[in-house]
């Protein structure tokens, strides 16, 4: 995602750091929100899909990091599938194939 921001959208890395500092949030939130906004211009459907898929992936990360549970292979495989779908969507949307 940072590759797209820095190299495709020409967003300077310092902008991300400063926005993160100003918003008092993690840089990942700034990166995701910028991509959602830019994707909405390219394709509103891609923006909605990206936002939904990122949300699902973030939920799985929270479960695996903070909940007292056993992570089954199917859970991990689902996370990998979602991550690969996000990569595919971004490559397609930004013509990075």
Could you explain how this protein is built, in words?
- This protein is an all-alpha fold.
- Helices cover 80% and strands 0% of the residues.
- Helix 4 runs antiparallel to helix 5.
- The longest helix has 23 residues, at 44-66.
- The protein is globular, with a radius of gyration of 15 Å.
Provide the fold topology.
Blueprint: H1 2-8, H2 13-23, H3 27-42, H4 44-66, H5 73-93
Helix pairs in contact: 2-3, 3-4, 4-5
Note the run of SSEs as H and E.
HHHHH
Cα gyration radius (Å): 15 Å
Q: How confident is the prediction overall: mean pLDDT? A: 94
Hey, roughly how much beta strand do the residues contain? under 5%
* End-to-end CA span: 14 Å
Count of DSSP-assigned helices: 5
Which ranges are low-confidence, i.e. pLDDT below 50, for 5 or more consecutive residues? none
Helical proportion? over 70%
Classify the oligomer: single chain
Strand runs, count: 0
> SS-based structural class?
mainly alpha
Shape: globular
Q: Largest beta sheet, briefly?
A: none
Write out key terms for the chains shown.
97 residues; mainly alpha; 5 helices
Question: What's this, in brief?
Answer:
By secondary structure, the chain is mainly alpha-helical. The chain has helices at residues 2-8, 13-23, 27-42, 44-66, 73-93.
């Amino acid at each position: 995602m940072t590759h797209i921001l820095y190299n495709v959208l020409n967003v300077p890395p310092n902008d991300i750091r400063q926005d993160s500092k100003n918003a008092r949030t993690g840089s990942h939130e700034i990166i995701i929100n910028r991509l959602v906004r830019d994707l909405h211009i390219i394709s509103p459907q891609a923006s909605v899909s990206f936002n939904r898929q990122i949300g699902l992936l973030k939920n799985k990360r929270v479960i695996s990091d903070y909940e007292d549970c056993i992570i089954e292979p199917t859970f991990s495989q689902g996370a990998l599938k979602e991550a690969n779908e996000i990569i595919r969507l971004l490559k397609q949307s930004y013509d990075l194939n």
